[in-house]
Write a structure and sequence with these properties.
The complex is a heterotrimer of chains A (258), B (329) and C (304).
Chain A lengths: L2 H5 L4 E12 L2 E12 L3 E5 L6 H9 L6 E6 L2 E2 L5 H6 L2 E4 L11 H11 L15 H14 L14 H13 L5 E5 L7 H14 L5 E4 L3 H7 L2 E6 L2 E6 L1 H6 L1 H8 L5
Parallel strand pairs in A: 3-8, 3-9, 6-7, 7-8
Antiparallel strand pairs in A: 1-2, 1-4, 4-5, 9-10
Helix pairs in contact in A: 4-5, 4-6, 5-6
Chain B lengths: L2 H23 L3 H25 L7 H21 L12 H23 L4 H20 L10 E2 L15 H24 L1 H19 L3 H27 L1 E2 L6 H14 L5 H24 L8 H14 L3 H7 L4
Antiparallel strand pairs in B: 1-2
Chain C lengths: L2 H32 L6 H19 L2 H22 L9 H23 L15 E4 L2 E4 H23 L1 H11 L1 H6 L4 H23 L9 H16 L4 H27 L4 H26 L9
Antiparallel strand pairs in C: 1-2
Helix pairs in contact in C: 1-5, 1-6, 1-8, 1-9, 1-10, 2-3, 2-4, 2-8, 2-9, 3-8, 5-6, 9-10, 9-11, 10-11
The chains are: A alpha/beta (258), B mainly alpha (329), C mainly alpha (304).
Chain lengths: 258, 329, 304
């Protein structure tokens, strides 16, 4: 039922082939293949235990797969560490908010800008007054609607704002692929709605792989959806195709989508 | 004027005036004590760069102080015996010896850092402690340079064509100048891009990697820079005490340096200076006070210091500088 | 070097290895379960040694003195856990380092006040004062006894951890602290128990070290740093790793001390060779540690 992968003609930003990751005897990723087309918003859904977290670990470079390959921007990155992939333009957000709590909101984003501004073996100039870091950071904050909170400590942000900052940091390096790990996690309805709007505004400008539990958000936003079950891609297709796919309904959506 | 700025000015004034006051009081001893405080402040500041700013709890920092001191000691032995070292004539020129001490300490820090930084947290603490112990044993094995007993130096390193450093007051001011220069440079560094990477890695190392920073490389650089400054402090220590021995590398010295940093306030540059002054002054005067209560009691003052440390960690984590400078994040 | 000499050194290495294991087992469990780095673990070793010396003076019976000393050291450990360290489980490692550094200063100074700065040399019990003939090797009975006790305690420890309910909790706690807390176990009691057990084992090592080494202030830290090397090599939090690391370090250190000075005498004059060889022998285990870490950063048997 692996329809989407071979059928796509547009260039793939990310291509995963036959990926396998075992923990002890248990295969958390079990021969998974997946392609994210440049420019699309591709959503990844699956029941708990389907292997989403393990997959993200392997895509971002924090986990090494046992078999299979990950290609990013036409390069085999299977064995590259996380920071090298990030430098190539693979940006990610974390399911559990991961910020620099003792830095201001602006400096959190400036750190992300700095990551893409060449090496940091610069010992003398005050980075806080460096407009090459500050200006792009401000621009990104503007984009996610956090400008008013620029000088607040990251640790003092409300949950929804922290999620926005998380996204801003991922956006700051003009990534070729944005890997969003449950950006709505822990958000209330209002915060979720704001995040959906934000993601919608990003659509088309950046390639996104969105892992999310919130079905309404996924079906509202995604160009294509891949359903992950027991470490494999059960189906890939447009929201409409996924909604009507009997195997998906059987395995996952059940009564919820009916 | 802000409170921290005022406190810094007071500290600088005390530093500048101490020899004058000591001379007026007829207590030259205070100049030597002051010199020791400045030297340990330098070492503590260097530790704080990796501990307070980089989040690397190194329990082996005294080893780099010791390595720096041994550079002075080894060169002294060769110079006084008129024997060449590595085919070269041993120099006593401070302008060569002191940078050399920093360089050798930095060189020692490269392999130690490379291996230690493969780990974080508790293993990092244990490994840095173990490597320091290894260097300690290395120095005790250097029989030609005193072995267990160390080497007493007859005189300080010299400036070209000038015996000025032999004078305690001159040496004090030179040490003060070096400390101030290092503090200024460190102040720039922690605010630079490099410093941000370091502080970011302390805050959230995983996030730094996800942003694309090769974090270990920056941490290693900081580790080596800190070792170089510690090596310089070691060279000054050897000159201040006119002695070089393995006890400079003893594990408890590394503990003392951590105490200075935390006591003064880690993650600040003035903190370690205050901490070094506080610990050395306590060490100097608490035993005397205890001896007043009962003669001979003072030699056991650490039985007081130990529990005080524990309470300090429990209830006063911000350190003396946090208290002096007032509330600030 | 003839085989008898090598056999003797190998036995010495084993004996040192089991001593290190007694130290490392407690330390690694305390770290694995409580996430506490306890620098004062070496102090329990010292306390065990001094108390044995003191009780030998009272009872005039070594075994009795040893048992009393071990029990009392476990109690001292319990007291330390209750009064001082309990507040530090949730603190970061730097706080723990500083606090337990403070404890070291306290215990060392206390020992110096009570027993003075001069090392005490303990006589082995009369029954173990001689040598035993092992296939032609005259080996000191006391060392053989230490080896035997060490192996027996290691076995008991294994039984405790592998076969009992407390052991099950200890194992679970070492790999997943939160899970044990979620089980509704009285975690504080478990922690206290493990801490006292670790202190007792360290005390036992110290008590047995008395007749072999000098009892003196500072002995605890010397072995503590070796224990750290053992744990880092073995894999932190793992009792199996502690055993492997302890035997490895015991062997390498002992054989290094036995052979390296002789090796250096081949190309240095005797005095210089003894110095350089001794230093090289002291450094051997750190080189070993560096090698292991370069290949396996998490040690030989990483826990969890």
């Amino acid at each position: 039922m692996d329809r989407g992968v071979a059928a796509m003609s547009a260039p793939a930003a990310l291509e995963v082939r036959d990926l396998v990751k075992r923990f002890g005897g248990l295969a958390a990723t079990d021969g998974l293949s997946l392609a994210v087309t440049a420019g699309e918003l591709h959503a990844l859904i699956g029941p708990n235990g389907a292997g989403k977290t393990t997959l993200i670990g392997q895509l971002s470079g924090e986990l090494r797969p046992d078999a299979g390959s990950v290609r990013f921007r036409d390069r085999d990155v299977t064995r590259l560490p996380a920071h090298r992939r990030a430098a190539m333009g693979l940006a990610r957000s974390f399911q559990i908010t991961s910020l620099f709590p003792s830095f201001s909101v602006l400096d959190n984003v400036a750190m992300a800008v700095q990551a893409h501004a060449g090496h940091s073996f610069r010992f003398w100039r005050d980075a806080g007054r460096d407009r090459r870091l500050g200006d792009p950071a401000r621009a990104v904050l503007e984009r996610v609607g956090l400008s008013a909170r620029a000088d607040v400590y990251a640790s003092d942000l409300a949950h929804g704002e922290a999620r926005q900052l998380e996204l801003a940091m991922a956006l700051a390096g003009d990534p070729a692929l944005l890997l969003l790990d449950e950006p709505m996690a822990g958000c209330g309805p209002e915060e979720s709605a704001r995040m959906v709007e934000l993601l919608r505004s990003l659509k088309g400008t950046v390639t996104i792989l969105l892992v999310e539990h919130d079905m309404d958000a996924v079906f509202a936003l995604a160009d294509r959806i891949t359903v992950l079950v027991r470490g494999r891609a059960l189906a890939t297709g447009t929201p409409a195709a996924i909604r009507s796919d009997p195997a998906v309904r059987e395995a996952y959506l059940g009564g919820e989508a009916a | 004027m802000t409170r921290p700025r005022f406190a810094l000015l007071v500290m600088l004034a005390v530093g500048l005036l101490l020899p004058v006051v000591a001379a007026w009081m007829g207590e030259p001893f205070y100049v030597r004590l002051g010199t020791r405080i400045l030297v340990f402040a330098l070492a503590a500041v260097s530790l704080d760069l990796i501990l307070g700013y980089g989040g690397m709890v190194s329990f082996g920092h005294a080893a780099f102080v010791g390595v720096g001191a041994y550079v002075v000691g080894v060169l002294f032995v060769h110079a006084s015996e008129y024997t060449p070292i590595l085919g070269l004539t041993a120099t006593q020129n401070a302008l060569i010896v002191w940078p050399l001490a920093a360089a050798v300490a930095a060189l020692a820090a490269v392999p130690i850092g490379l291996i230690s930084l493969r780990t974080t947290g508790v293993p990092f603490i244990m490994i840095t402690l173990a490597f320091a112990q290894m260097l300690f044993y290395l120095m005790t094995g250097l029989k030609a340079y005193g072995g267990d007993d160390g080497v007493a130096l007859w005189n300080r390193n010299e400036l070209p064509d000038s015996p000025a450093l032999a004078d305690n007051t001159v040496f004090y001011y030179v040490t003060l100048g070096i400390l101030v220069a290092v503090l200024v440079a460190a102040h720039r560094m922690v605010r630079s891009r490099f410093g941000r990477v370091l502080r970011g890695a302390k805050d959230n190392e995983r996030r730094m990697r996800a942003l694309g920073f090769p974090v270990t490389r920056y941490k290693l650089a900081a580790f080596v820079i800190a070792a170089a400054i510690a090596g310089l402090a070691g060279a000054l220590l050897a000159n201040a005490t006119l002695f070089v021995g393995p006890q400079y590398l003893h594990w408890s010295r590394s503990g003392d340096l951590i105490v200075m940093v935390v006591l003064g306030g880690m993650g600040t540059l003035a903190g370690p200076v205050v901490g070094a002054a506080a610990l050395l002054l306590l060490e100097e005067f608490v035993p005397e006070l205890m001896n007043l209560a009962k003669p001979g009691l003072g030699e056991h003052w650490k039985i007081v210091l130990g529990p005080v440390l524990l309470l300090l960690v429990l209830y006063a984590r911000r350190g003396l500088w946090g208290w002096i400078a007032g509330s600030r994040r | 070097m003839d085989t008898l000499l090598i056999a003797e050194q190998a036995l010495n290495g084993l004996q040192f290895g089991v001593m290190l294991f007694l130290m490392a087992a407690g330390l690694t469990l305390v770290f694995g379960i409580m996430d506490l780095i306890n620098l004062a673990h070496g102090s329990f070793y010292m306390v065990g040694a001094y108390l044995t010396a003191a009780f030998v003076g009272v009872f005039d019976h070594f075994l009795l003195a040893l048992l009393a000393a071990v029990a009392l050291t476990a109690l001292v450990g319990l007291a330390v856990e209750w009064t001082a360290l309990r507040s530090f489980y949730r603190r970061d490692h730097l706080d723990q380092v500083l606090a337990t550094f403070g404890l070291i200063l306290f215990f060392n100074e206390l020992a110096r006040i009570i027993w003075g700065p001069v090392p005490i040399f303990l006589n082995p019990p009369a029954a173990l004062a001689g040598t035993v003939n092992l296939f032609g090797l005259q080996y000191p009975a006391i060392r053989l006894a230490i080896l035997g006790v060490g192996v027996a305690v290691a076995l008991l420890l294994w039984l405790l951890i592998a076969r009992t309910r407390v052991g099950m909790l200890i194992r679970a706690g070492a790999t997943n602290r939160e899970m044990v807390m979620a089980l509704g176990v009285d975690v504080r009691l478990l922690f206290s128990l493990v801490f006292a057990l670790g202190a007792g084992l360290a005390g036992l090592a110290g008590a047995m070290a008395g007749p072999v080494l000098a009892v003196q202030v500072g002995m605890g830290e010397q072995i503590l740093i070796l224990t750290f090397v053992v744990i880092v090599i073995g894999g932190i939090g793992s009792v199996r790793g502690a055993l492997a690391g302890a035997l490895l370090v015991g062997m390498v250190d002992t054989l290094g001390r036995a052979t390296l000075p002789a090796l250096f005498r081949l190309f240095l004059d005797p005095a210089a060779a003894n110095g350089a060889g001794g230093a090289a022998a002291s450094m051997a285990i750190y080189v070993l540690m560096a090698l292991v870490l370069a290949i396996r950063p998490r040690g030989l048997f990483p826990a969890g």
